[in-house]
Amino acid sequence: MAEGWALALASQRFEPGYFSFSSAGLEAHGLNPRAVDVMAQNGVDISAHTSDVLTDEMLAAADLVVSVCSNADTNCPLLPAGTVKRHLPFTDPAGATGTETDIGACFQSVCGEIRDAMVMLIQELSANQPMSVRQDSGEHLFQQSDVEVQSRSSVYQGFLKVDRLYLRHQLFEGGWSERLERELLIKEQAVGVLLLDPDTDQLVMVRQFRVGMLWQRESPWPLELVAGMVDKEETPEAVALRETREETGLTISGLVKICEYFNSPGASTEKVTLFCAKVDAKTAGGIHGLKHEHEDIKVVVIPREQAIEGIRSGEFNNAMSMIALQWLELNQKTLNKLWA
User: Fold this and answer.
1) CB neighbours of residue 338 within 10 Å
2) Residue pair 226/248 in contact by the 8 Å Cβ criterion
3) What's the average model confidence in pLDDT over 275-302?
4) Angle (deg, nearest 10), helices 319-339 and 100-126
């Protein structure tokens, strides 16, 4: 998929031969039919591609080698002098489990991630910018092993879960910190979905009560993205499908991954994955949600431009919505081409 996207994107901006792309692996596993199908859905034909094994000749001819999985990154052969290596980690969709819909959503999501990465890579190459390879920056990065958790206990378990940790960690100037006491809010991974109707240029969003906004100047019924928590053994893509159905009654297509971020890493374990998806806004509306979860969710349809103006005016002040809407403003043209 990476080679297919790189060739397709480069052909839109440059003359043939300006860039040369080829792909190979440490082993040959054959062409995945699901990869062929999802690329075809996105307007790129890779049916004639082959599954090849990386050779010394290919490495010698390369200016840049990009690995896309941890195994290839770890076991990449020694590169010739002057050849730059870049690692772009993607989830292997071939390992996806669940229903056909879940597996298809995973392939579509990874396909979108690869496309976005190839867009950025080609922009970087065409601007003749140096490769920003983190391991070549000279900065020493601390890892999990540089933290010593001396004890951990549960402080509270209710709607929220809180643990108390005693720990110490390595210091930038050397040595160890003093013993620290920290309370940690335990939250499962969350997913947010920005729902866009490209035909009407409208967004489908939701309102529901948020206790964290009580006693604030703003209404505690903010305008937000569809969102929910990841259950055990559930992919973020599957959550995006499920939560959209539960909160809006709509079915999504063209799922594109926006980003991942930690919501408040100083005090919480929550990690958020954001997506953008295509919906039919003409059928959107009403009150939705699961009664046993005490959900009372109102669906709101607004023009995309109005939402973007809401970022400028401060009407949108929750992180999920702000990040997703700003991403949409930056990637609108690319998204239109993808969904065309």
Assistant:
1) 20
2) yes
3) 94
4) 90
At residue 132, the pLDDT reads 46
Give the list of residues 6+ apart from residue 333 with CB closer than 8 angstroms, or none.
Answer: none
Q: Measured between alpha carbons, how far is 157 from 75 in angstroms, rounded to an integer?
A: 43
Q: Is pTM, for the whole model, over 0.70?
A: no
* DSSP class per residue in 216-254: SSS-SS-EE-EEEEPPTT--HHHHHHHHHHHHHS---EE
Structure token digits, residue 32: 């995945």
Six-digit token string for 42: 């996105």
Amino acid symbol at 104: G
Residues classed as catalytic:
293
Residue 142 class from Cβ within 10 Å (0-12 exposed, 13-18 middle, 19+ buried)? Answer: exposed
Asked if residue 116 belongs to a domain, the reply is: yes
Residue-range definition of the domain harbouring residue 171? 145-186
CATH number of the domain where residue 303 is located? 3.90.79.10
The predicted structure's pLDDT at residue 156:
96
**Total structural domains in the chain?**
3
Ramachandran bin of 240, using left for φ above 0, alpha for ψ from -120 to 50, beta for the remaining angles: alpha
My answer on whether 227 and 321 are in the same domain is: yes
pLDDT for 232: 76
3-class DSSP assignment, residue 54: coil
d(C-alpha 196, C-alpha 310), whole Å? 16
